[in-house]
Each structure stands twice: as structure tokens, then as C-alpha cells.
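Morning!

This is the sequence you dropped in the shared folder:
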Amino acid sequence: MLELRDIRKVFNEGKPHELIALDNVSLSFEEQKVTVLKGPSGSGKTTLLSLAGCMARPTSGRIRLGQRDLSSLPERFLTGIRRRTFGFIFQQFNLMKGITALENVMLPAYPLGGDHAALKERALQLLDVFGIRARALSRAEWLSGGEAQRTAIARALINDPSIVIADEPTAHLDTKLSREFMEIVARFKEQKKTVIIASHDPLVYDSPVIDRIVSMRDGRIEGTGT
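The structure's back. C-alpha cells below.
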């Protein structure tokens, strides 16, 4: 279980433009469940995701993954945990231009070492799962929106993470692609992955695949439900 306890995140602390992004938030994410963080822009959803995924540290509070306290770990250990445990799907996809879809998928696995041929085959298999193996050697800038999305999802899965984090994944997608994304989320659930999504899209939080909705506003949790 991933647990955040009494989390506070303050930007520009002590300065005139201090911003309290999260204010005493406690939340746990059950394993193999799909949770949506729902709320307006500025509610703290993205900040909470970045803390849950070990991409940032809280100003105060504790973050635990299983029996391990992550809050005080040195950055080099956090980096290893982040690479092996989490897969990230970003709103803008963040594919690197100038390299192929295949190379983009392989990128997160390079720091972990291992056999390059095996890594390449694993990346090709992921592209095949999402129906875009034929575009493996196409540069990122040549991909359509749907192809870029699927490449980004394959990249998130290359290290076989147990937790998938997605930040407003349907923000730039049409209705058809948004529904396809939720079908992919259903696959994650079948594979027993924990999924955390930040979204204010009804196509996401009204989906039957969602187990829990956490409503946020002004850096606090307003309520939870199903």
C-alpha cells in the first residue's frame, strides 16, 4: 500500500508569494485498485501525484510504500525506487523528438542496465500490445495524437511498474481516444496494477473501471467515494 500521512507541500515558503499546494493531506492507495483524484485546476492534484510518485518531497509529513518510509531516503535511493515501482503517463506525453517511438519506449529502462536485445524485444512487444508496432521506427514527431499516447503508455510500462500514475491523461484527447485510454486502464487493473489518475474529465471519473474517487479543492481532500 502507498500511504501519504499529514502531507504538507509549500512553495516559496516564508516569502511574500508563498503557496500552500497541499495542506495536511492524509491518503492511502489500495493495491490493485484504480483511484481518481478529482478537482478543479489548482486543487493540488498534480502536486499530490508528484509526491506519491517520488518525483518531489513534501515540506512535512511522511510517505510510505509498504513497510518502507520514503520521506527521508537519499535521492539516489528514491531514484531507484521510482524507476522500478512507478510508471508515469504525462498530460503532454513528453516524447523526445528526433528519436523513434521504439527508442522513446526504451529510455526509462536504460539506467537499469540489462541486455539491450531483450529490452528492445520487450519494447516491441509493448508497442504490439497497443497496436502500433508498425510505427516503432517512426520518429516521435511523426506520430498521430493517438499513436503518441500509446507510445507514452508503453514507455510507462517498460519497467513493469506496480503503480501507474497518470496526470490529466485525456486533457488533449478527443472522446474516442479518451475512451480508448480508459479501456487501457481496465487492462492495467486486470494485470493487478495500482493506478492513480488525476483528472477533471467525466469520461475518466465516471468510468466503471474506477474503484475510488478522491475530491480535492484548495490543497485539501473534500471527500472520497466510489
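Headline: The chain has one domain: 2-225.

More detail when I'm at my desk.
O.
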